[in-house]
Amino acid sequence: PSLRPVTPVSKTDIMAAFTVGMSAAASRTLSFKSRAGSKQLRAAKPVRAAAAVRAKPARADLDPDNISVLVAGGSGVAMDVVRQLKDAGTWVTVFQRKEDDRAEIEKMGAFLSKGDALDEATVKKAYDMVEEYDAVVSTIGGTPADPKADSEGNINLIEAAVAKGKEQGRMPKFVLVTSIGTGDSQGAPPPQVYEALKPVLLQKVKAEDKLKELAAANGMEFCIVRPGGLKSEPATGTGVLTEDVNICGAIHRSDVASLVVKCVLKDSANGKVLSCVDKEQLFDQPAFEEFAL
To answer: What is the pLDDT along the chain (293 residues), one digit of tens a residue?
Structure first.
């Protein structure tokens, strides 16, 4: 890990980034992406008797060219995750509430399962679409006016991942994308930002807690990524991860996606809760320790 000086930005900039991110989330709440397979797509099979979960193998990084990943999320960070995984050779199945991205998804060679995270039947359908998943990514979220997706939607996905793990005989890794301001990072955003997003952040922490609980009980690897205020500009390449719960700043969606993909693949991210910011767009923090993957 290395100590990073900050380039501070104003409270107004941070508020704008978080607000823009939440407004964009409102337009794509509960969309999903996923991915499936190994070198060859394995056709979905009927539910079979649950197999005994195999002993966890020795810890090792995942090979992107030999894994199947389910990505749940909208047209922002989730689609960038899908693009980057596809570029690396990963099998991806996409589960979304809308079909706006269907053409791009199918052109990439990924698969779309249309559904809603608040509907357990359609969540199960997405998991049943492929025989085995190696990892699951969820970026879904709601809005301050309707934050149910942040807790109930994500919890449905987490519980279904555990059920899938029992069925396939090994637990998939679960990477949950929430937000700075969730849980023990509550004090990181400026007070007015936290208050504006409080309904959402209180629901996100329920999903984080459920993931930790079920991961511990079932031997499931996980990672939680908490981005700062989201921007839609092109990647800067200066996005970083840190275990510092006091850090706050902005970050571009494509940079978040790059870091999320690293968290999917890297064993060193397992069990970590990581804030995610652009080191050139930080707010009111003199220095922080970077978590390198």
So the answer is: 444 444 556 556 666 666 545 544 443 332 222 333 333 333 333 333 334 444 445 568 999 999 999 999 988 999 999 999 999 999 999 999 999 999 999 999 999 999 999 999 999 999 999 999 999 999 999 999 999 999 999 999 999 999 999 999 999 999 999 999 999 999 999 999 999 999 999 999 999 999 999 999 999 999 999 999 999 999 999 999 999 999 999 999 999 999 999 999 999 999 999 999 999 999 886 689 999 99
DSSP 14-51: HHHHHHHHHHHHHHTTT---B---SSSPPPP----PPP
Pairwise CA distance, residues 190 & 3, whole Å: 23
